[in-house]
């Protein structure tokens, strides 16, 4: 149960800090600030709860770890529930804060940090999310495997998420995380919910492929000898 509570708190923190930056501070900090808000949230949680749950904070990450043979199906189920609950709870708190804005907060006009495609099409968004999640899981599995310099794992993983956001915010919103996408979409309206399927399917495809490659020894050996 401690692991599931840790995943709830960690996912809450990721969605809260990252999406709060998008909602309240994007104009002030720009896309670079948004990217670091998500990445630094992962760094903070990795070093605070990583020793309890591994700080997955992401259903796609847990899927990749499951496929790689590094967690049980029972824990996987508990992690998924905790992560989605954390993402939804964080979005609810952000919505409550936004509603307190003087003059009101117009979700339709301003958005609610939801992921979506528009400037680029659905295929571009799908390919980016799948490829970015594959690379993200490759880093996570390699940085946390036996024999790796685990003291740096949280920093490396967080900076990888920063790079993913810098590369793909304009393409897909750079989610690579179903829980991060689902929570805000619940409050953003039907248009966001109509697109959220992509942020379930594409990250899970990328994560599963990465987990399988790691279990088969393809990426594991590459990372170990790098």
UniProtKB/TrEMBL annotation:
Annotated GO MF terms: water channel activity
Subcellular location: Cell membrane
Stored NCBIfam families: MIP (TIGR00861)
Organism of derivation: Bradyrhizobium neotropicale
Taxonomic placement: Bacteria, Pseudomonadati, Pseudomonadota, Alphaproteobacteria, Hyphomicrobiales
Protein name in UniProt: Aquaporin
Family classification: Belongs to the MIP/aquaporin (TC 1.A.8) family.
Residue ranges of coiled coil: none
InterPro entries named in the record: Aquaporin-like, Aquaporin_transptr, MIP, MIP_CS
GO terms under cellular component: plasma membrane
Transmembrane segments: 5-25, 76-97, 117-140, 152-176, 196-214
Bilayer topology term: Multi-pass membrane protein
Chief location bin: membrane
Stored PANTHER family: AQUAPORIN TRANSPORTER, MIP17260P
Keyword annotations: Cell membrane, Membrane, Transmembrane, Transmembrane helix, Transport
